[in-house]
Amino acid sequence: MKNGKYTVNSEDVEGSLACCGSTNNRMPQYLAAATVTIGGFSLGNVLGWSSPAIPNLTNSGDFPDIQNYQKAWIGSLVTIGALVGACCSGFLIEKIGRKKSLIVVGIPYITGWLTIALASQIYMLYIGRFLTGFSVGALSLVAPVYLCEISQSDIRGFLGAIFQVTVTVGILFTFVIGSMTSWQLLSATCGIFPLIFTIFSSLLPESPRYLIAKGRSEAALKALSWLRASDSTNPSKDVLEELDEIQGTIQHGKELQLKYLDLISLPILKPILITLGLMFFNQFCGSNAVGFYTVTIFEEADLGMDAHLSSIIVGVVQVVATALASAFVDKAGRRILLLLSFTIMCISLLALGTFFHLKNASYGQFLLESTHWIPLASVMAFNAAYCGGVGCLIWTVMSELLPNHVIGFASGLATTFNWTLAFVTTRFFQDLNDSLGIHNTFFLFAGACSAAVLFIYVFVPETKGKTLDTIQKENFQHKGSRSAEDIASVASSTTNLV
């Protein structure tokens, strides 16, 4: 079968892939995204667990000699596991594929939660948090790449945002269950969802881009036909044209072998640096520090209401904010939402830092009573802005900016960088509070948010409604320079540089 440049090769197709018809050519994409979002829910469980569980650990008496530094390690070991997971996933998505990588991610999830639920020693909590963190880091790379590659350009931002919605729902779930049950039951409950995710992931089609890169054109045709609700035996013109575009991009990349010097060429270096910049501000805005220690922050603020209830209110707000953002991300655009998100976060952190400054300086009981609402309002606004902007867009933008032939190496580098910074901000959050004062810590994060606004305004392009190939041509290729497709081999060769 031929259509323009595209030719279907006679190769075996994965038995797990089945065609299904639909009157709506987007429905299969929604179904695939729904499966991936179960993993996002589990990701949220991991990120939200420490907020209710660490105070419960302290109050339960199960670990009567637990020290503050041990609590810090319980909270931050997730980020070390995520760092390792990010390193491995950049290699895995090219060696075994996007689909199989999703399945592999579920195994440490399940094992980690079981280890935490059965923990009788501190080291078991450490191991469990590391394992669940490994899956968080791996999934934070694999899921955006998979969703980006299977989706049409006009709904790509929406599907990425929906993934983040389920992350916030997962966080809220742990806040609610953690306020009512023991840390053991919370952990056991969280372990159910990765099992469901792993089973459903085995039913997904592989990414058509990955299949073409591996020379499996017939499998790519069937995968894309399923995703576009088209008959693979008589594919639509749109499906064949899309395959032509994908195959043309990847074929050019196969003609040359990637060299180290190619990584400093503008078409590759520029999107990598932009991505690393976004990851830097994603962590130094204080998102994980505030999220991991929400209950602790409210306990220190002495709001006069239950700290768990306050965290649940915050969780509800961030779910609503993320859901609203998902409805507008493909209309408003990524760039404007990122700018608005960091601006609101900066204002919220300034307000939060000001409150703790007043509290620590003892400016009088009346003044504190008149501003007691500031911590809850500030954390609500911060989380709403983060989840409605940065949190639901940064991974999508990463997958859109990075050229297909370097996405394995570059996304692994970016995700590893992200989780390295996450470890720094979470592990030393309490140390910063002790040395600088909690108010100055929040002022420091606010400064990072203001710098992020300037960075996005100057460097980050708009990617709304554009195909992945168009994004590369418009923003990173210049007349007289080698095109992104002509610089290197496909991503399978780039993983050798990791």
TrEMBL record:
The keyword Transmembrane applies. It is a multi-pass membrane protein. It comes from the Eukaryota. It is found in: Membrane. Its main location: membrane. Belongs to the major facilitator superfamily. Sugar transporter (TC 2.A.1.1) family. This is Major facilitator superfamily (MFS) profile domain-containing protein. It comes from Orchesella dallaii.
